[in-house]
Amino acid sequence: ILRCNQNEIESAIRHWHVTNWVQDEFSCGAYSYPTLQSAQARKVLSNPVNDVLYFAGEALYEGSSGGTVEAALFSAREVVSRISPMN
Q: How many CA atoms lie within 13 A of 45 on its CB side?
């Protein structure tokens, strides 16, 4: 799926964090869903902060499969390509 093996992925990880979304007071276990403000929010969150902090995830996906793992992976690939463009 990511065209690399487990060892390559593990060696590239610099930091990780596990979250229990069901216990999270802000998400309460829910995935994203569009609102009237979603398009504007995606525009704001698509801009990196000082070229250091980048946001990705299913909520920032522009396609028709929002709220899915597919959307999260697609969003992540887009952000990674902006951080380190492939030549």
A: 15
